[in-house]
Amino acid sequence: MTDKSRPGAGGRQIAALTLPTLGVLAAEPLYLLFDTAVVGHLGALPLAGLAIGGLVLSESQLTFLSYGTTARAARFFGSGDRAAAVNEGTQATWLALAIGSVITIVVEAAGLPLVSVIASRGDIAEAALRWLRIAILGAPAILVSLAGNGWMRGVQDTVRPLRYVVAGFGLSALLCPLLVYGWLGLPRLELPGSAAANLAGQWLAALLFCRALLAEQISLHVDRAVLRAQLVLGRDLFVRIVAFQVCFVSAAAVAARFGAAAVAAHQVVVQLWNFFALVLDSLAIAAQALVGAALGAGNTANAKSVAGRITAFSLLTASALALLLAVGAPVVPELFTDDQSVLAMIQVPWWFLAGQLPIAGIVWGLDGVLLGAGDARFLRNVTVIGASVGFLPLIWLSLVFGWGLAGIWSGLATFTALRLVLVGVRTLSGRWLVTGTG
C-alpha cells in the first residue's frame, strides 16, 4: 500500500476530509435557506408551495448512492486498489441515471395527487405543483452528484466535489432572485423561477462529476457483480431513507393541516434542521471514509480511534450550533419571512431544535462510524424502530389532539433520543469492527 492510500486517524486527517465535505454538505441547505428567503418575501402561500414541492423533490435524493458508495470505495482504497474504488463510482453513476429518469417520469405523471396528499388546501397544492413540475427534471442530476460525491469521498478526494457543488449552487443562487423577481430585464416568474434556478445548478454540478469520472480513464461498462453488491447495501440504506422520509412527509402533512402559517414556520425550521444535520454529517462522512479505509487495511485500532475522535468533535460542534441558535432566536427568523403569522409560529420548533442538537451531534457521528463499517442493516433497524415507536406516533397524535408544531417536534426529539441509545450500545459493543473488502 502506498503512503497516499494509508488511512489516518489524526485530527489533521479528519479536518482535511471534514472541511471540504462541510462545504459540499452546507452548500445545498445554504442555498435552500436563501431560496426560502427569496420565495418567503412573496408571501405565505408561495412559501407553503415551496415547502410541499421541495419536500417531494427531496424524496428523490436517494443518499444510499452517496453513503453506500463511500463505504464500499473506502474499503478498496484502504486496501490499495484505487481502480476498484473508482469502479464503485462508475456503477453508482449508472444507477443514478436509471433511477433518476424513472423518478422524473413518475413524479411528472403523478405530481398532482402527490402534492394533494400532503397539502391540505387546493391553493397550496397548486403552488407546489407549479414548482415541482420544473424542479423534478433535475432528479437524475441530483443522483449523479450523490454518486460522484460517494466515490470521491471514498478515495479521500473531497476538494474537487466542493468545487463542483459550489459551482452548481452558485449558479442557482445567481439565477434565483433574477427569475423570481424578474430583475435585470428577465421575466418575473415568481415561484416557478425558483424551480428553474434549482434545475440549472443541479445539471451543472452533475456534468462536472461526470467529467471527473471520465478523467480516471477506467472502463465504463456495467459491472453486474458490483451493481448487485451495491443494491444489497443500498436496500438497507433505502429502507432507512424511506423511514426518515415517511416521518418528515407526515410532519409536513400534519403541519399543513394547521394552516399555511404553520407549514411555512415548519418549513423554515426544517431547513435549519437540515442545514445543521448536514454540517454534522461532514464529520460523519469523514468517519465513513476513514473507518472504511482502516477496516479495508485491517487496522481495527485506527477505526476505534476515528470513532472516538469523531464523536467528540461532533458533540462539540453541535453544542456550538445550539448556542448560536439560541442567541439568534429573537432576530434570525425575520431573515426568512416578514409574515407575522409565520413568525408567531416559529418559536416553538425553534427551541425544540436548539435543545436536541447536542444529542443529534453524537448520533450523526456514530452513524458515520457504523456506515463506514458497512453496518447498514443495523442502522436500518434503528431508524425503523425510532420512527415507528417515537416520531410517527407523536406526529399523528398531534393532529388528533391539536398539539400543533409542539407535538410534531416532540416526535423528532424522541426519535433522536432513541437513536442515541441504540447506536451508542452498538458502537461500544465493537461488533462493527469487521476487516477486509468483502
TrEMBL record:
NCBIfam families: matE. One of its GO terms (cellular component) is plasma membrane. It is found in: Membrane. The chain crosses the membrane at residues 36-57, 94-119, 131-152, 164-184, 196-214, 237-260, 272-298, 310-328, 348-366, 378-397, 403-422. It is a multi-pass membrane protein. One of its GO terms (molecular function) is antiporter activity. This is MATE family efflux transporter. It comes from Mycobacterium gastri. The lineage of its organism: Bacteria, Bacillati, Actinomycetota, Actinomycetes, Mycobacteriales. It comes from the Bacteria. Belongs to the multi antimicrobial extrusion (MATE) (TC 2.A.66.1) family. It holds the Pfam family MatE. Keywords: Membrane, Transmembrane, Transmembrane helix.
